[in-house]
Specification:
The chain has helices at residues 15-32, 49-61, 65-86, 91-115, 120-127, 129-144, 171-187, 213-224, 258-266, 274-282, 338-349, 371-384, 386-391, 419-429, 455-463; strands at residues 2-7, 34-39, 149-152, 191-195, 198-200, 206-208, 229-234, 255-257, 287-291, 300-303, 315-328, 355-358, 364-370, 396-409, 434-439, 445-451. The chain has 472 residues and is α/β, with parallel strands linked by helices. The two termini are 28 Å apart. Bound molecules: adenosine-5'-diphosphate and magnesium ion.
Amino acid sequence: MQLVMKFGGTSVGSAQAISETAALITNIQERWQDVVVVASAMGSKPVKVTDLLLDGASAAARGDVKTALQNAALLRQIHRDTISNLLTTEREAVLAENGAFIDHFESLCQAVAILGELSPRALDTIGGMGERMSVRILAAHLREQGHPAEAVDASELILTDSRYQNASPQMVQTAERTQARIRPLLAEGVIPVVTGFIGADASGVQTTLGRGGSDYSAAILGQVLDADEVWIWTDVDGVMTADPRLVQEAQSIPELSFREVSELAFYGARVLHPKTMRPCIENNIPLRIKNTFNPHHPGTVIVPHRTNPTGGIKAVTSVNELSLVTVEGKGMLGIPGIAARTFGAVAQTGHSVLLISQASSEQSICFATHSGHAFRVTEALKTEFAKELERRDIDAVRSQQPVSIVTVVGAGMQGMPGIAGRVFTALGDSGVNVIAIAQGSSECSISVVVEEREAGTAVQSIHNLITPVPVA
Ligand code: ADP
Ligand code: MG
């Protein structure tokens, strides 16, 4: 039996966390035999290694070498403390290896500062360093505990295109390389500890896989190694009914369909990025989300399709820092193609739309976009509709911010009479004003736009409608 397991930043965030993670790995290896580990960069909250690397690089690009060097010093301290507290026989060797990465980070920042420019390619080289350090620590600790293990840079395994920052894997070559490198290790009982997040393009230049990258790495390896299951270990008991930082009573959801979890992830639940699940879903590889710090909890399993037997609300999520842009005017009724022109103009700006809602009278179209993009988007629309605005066919292009999207998720929910009513009653009873409404195309979500300051109340009041999962 073969299992690919990914450990998130907090699971390797300190000496203590790494030793718990290692114990978990060896425990599971006894049952599964073939275990492939994927690890993120150290990410104990609030200091995340990848953020320090990327912020340092951006500071350098602005000419602020001081901040870059401060970040390097902090990186050195975090890794040195962890290594010193964790390792014994391999301590000096791993300290030297990690130190070399941080020296290299410093030199790259100096170079970036001189050039005054930070290319996506340089960002990928710098941004992937955290994983290259953490896997070396984890593998060394496993060896010291008497379990053969080897750190592997995924740039040896995952071949990608050259779209830095958001590279896509080329699965055929990735399968060949991964099988050739990983299978012999497994055959000898060695645990491969692979860097998450990174790959390399055809010229061998390091790339990164974009948001949720390490989860994606695990799913890619799961597919090409034909794993029996993929487990994502994080710091919560699986996917929960709401962000546990916002809703104290949030509970773990035992089973979710791919659609449901995609909808949740798209609207703010960063626990799992939809793209990362695809290799598992398409190959029918069960995907579980589990808690490193509560390993006996079953967590959540993601299944390809499954109707929600009760049809009720399963989870609620929110995204903040959005603007609601409205194009409105009584004369719009008569003009063909307004919607197409609106979204064409938005697409030209390269910014994405999170939600669209149109009044049935066709007198207005509104959509949500990230606040940082609202100015460019509204300007683009004013240019597109200059004539209509002049003729007063369109009265205004406006934007309202800050707003949030609050999304209710549950398969089959839209077919259940009364669910939407209960949601709006709950919002009304809590005094939340709903600015716009939309239904997800996948028929398992309803989203509302509210003022950002009311988002917390909205999430909580909708969460109160979720029937608690019976305690087994
Ligand atoms: P990792 O470093 O392990 O990948 P992430 O920070 O990416 O961890 O994802 C886990 C975090 O996602 C949790 O700590 C939690 O704060 C947040 N989160 C947001 N919404 C949800 C949700 N609905 N269920 C579970 N976690 C959620
Ligand atoms: Mg994550």
